[in-house]
Here is the input.
Amino acid sequence: MSTQTDEFCDTLRDRLNTIEDRVKSTKSQIAAASEQEQAALREKFDDMRRDVQTRKQQVEMTLARLKNRAQQKVVATKEQISEWKAKREARKLEARADRAEDYAAAAIDFAAASIDEAEAAILDAVVARLDADDAQ
Here is the structure.
């Protein structure tokens, strides 16, 4: 593989590992929550809710990038790509590779934002359950 491909794969791997670490961290925090930590958990939920609201704009921009890439893929047909390969049109193939990498990165960003929202939803559920338990 080329150096660029290796670097791209490493970047994606790092992003996925970060996402996995965050999910594991949230899971362990919820499992370890004692009564004393419930207030901290509620505070974390409030902070996370604010962060999710802030990231919504980023998610919308990422989604627009994903849609744009999907439209570009329709334009670049297999025959066209085969023609570029046959004619050794490296500039066009390089641009296509760059767009594909941008799309993959945007998809990872979208997944990370979705995990942020899921993490907030999990905390919301935990806080709601704590409220229900306190009422009994």
